[in-house]
Give the backbone structure.
Amino acid sequence: MASSSTADFKNGMTLAFNHDLFVITEFLHVKPGKGSAFVRTKLKSITTGKVLDHTFPSGTKVEEVRIERRQYQFLYRDEQGYHFMNMESYEQIFLQKDLINGWPFLKDGQECEIVFHSEEERPLFCDLPARVELQVTYTEPGLKGDTATNAMKPATLETGAEIRVPLFINEGDRIKVDTRDGSYSERVKA
């Protein structure tokens, strides 16, 4: 871990703080007319995803954590966890479900990014692409003319995940799903 100060802050920087790892999502250096300068930050926890507002006195020393993003391909899931293969070295690792952001939308062969703590070579979390293309395996049949309303119905996807889709989506359709919140994005044209 490298020692840095508030002068080194930048968006995306990872810090060891309060017995957790945080990513700086926003920061603002403030120099009031009276008193000493400070830095207002928004920190997102890597482990819980919670956002924390914190103010650091200007010049405070912090522990910067180096992280690496590596491309992996999802292979399969078993009782040990979710198995991935490094796209360059073909080395395999497995992760538990709680480290995978958007795990219900993970399908065999899916490429994703695993973020590692550089010095400890420990996987911190896995990110799927923001949107993935999946096939609808079950939903109630749609009706002609149901395209104008904002009504939604449940649908089961090829990964087993259930989401809400517009009424005009049918079984067998391919759709794009936002992996961050599990929402329907669009129907994929054949």
Observations:
- The CA atoms of residues 152 and 166 lie 4 Å apart.
- The chain is about 0% helix and 55% strand.
